[in-house]
TrEMBL record:
GO terms for molecular function: oxidoreductase activity. It comes from [Ruminococcus] lactaris ATCC 29176. This is Flavin reductase. It is an enzyme of class 1 (oxidoreductase). The lineage of its organism: Bacteria, Bacillati, Bacillota, Clostridia, Lachnospirales. It comes from the Bacteria.
């Protein structure tokens, strides 16, 4: 059991200060087996829009528990990066990368290279967090390479899921998905207030793990 947990951790790549560290295992079985494994694995980038270790992170970890066995996963933590806001200068022309000499380009390069993007955010003032919005804004510099991605969203808020705040966030992602021809695999919203509330909701935890496992 301990080895299984460690193996899963080795497949997860955490992004801090713009540096991406590879923790993927090296397969040394026969060539045909390697090709089959490579064909089925997806590169998944998770953008964690929360700076806290609370319910959003809990949701991400549940998803990773299901998805990490068959996929390569990278986690982007915007609050740990040095990224200036988009100035709308237009120099990037949606394909050339950003002129800012910070963590923007290494971060957006990883998103552009992903097969799937998971956007995860708490609800702040009826919308996504500033941390997540910052990354989305800077994606403009490589916007032409973000088309046809598989995408999922996880939103965690302090109001019941029939509140308009979730609808507003979903609509924004719907617009982005239409513009970039994304394949929207899932949009999940959860109601949790106390820091450990989502973790105690076994149905939600099983749902998130199942989503990851069935990718």
């Amino acid at each position: 059991m301990q080895k299984s947990v460690q193996a899963r951790k080795n497949r997860i790549i955490s992004t801090k200060s713009g540096q991406f560290q590879s923790g993927l295992p090296i397969f040394k079985t026969n060539r045909n087996t390697n090709r089959k494994l490579e064909d089925t694995r997806m590169k998944i980038v998770i953008i964690n829009g929360s700076a806290r270790k609370g319910n959003t992170l809990t949701a991400i970890n549940a998803f990773i528990k299901g998805a990490s066995e068959k996929n390569e996963i990278e986690i982007i933590e915007p609050d740990k990066l040095n990224i200036a806001p988009c100035k709308g200068c237009g120099v990037c022309q949606c394909s050339k990368g950003c002129v800012d000499k910070d963590d923007t380009n290494p971060t957006i390069d990883k998103i552009a290279a992903a097969d799937m993007i998971l956007f995860a955010t708490p609800v702040y003032w009826w919308g996504m967090s500033a941390q997540l919005k910052l990354i989305i804004d800077k994606c403009y510099c490589r916007g032409l390479q973000l088309k046809n991605k598989k995408v999922g969203t996880i939103v965690v808020g302090g109001s019941p899921v029939d509140s308009i705040q979730y609808e507003l966030i979903d609509k924004q992602f719907d617009c982005m998905a239409k513009y970039l021809s994304w394949d929207m695999l899932f949009k999940k919203s959860y109601y949790a207030t106390a820091r450990d509330e989502l973790e105690k909701n076994k149905d939600s935890m099983n749902e998130l793990e199942g989503i990851g496992k069935n990718l």
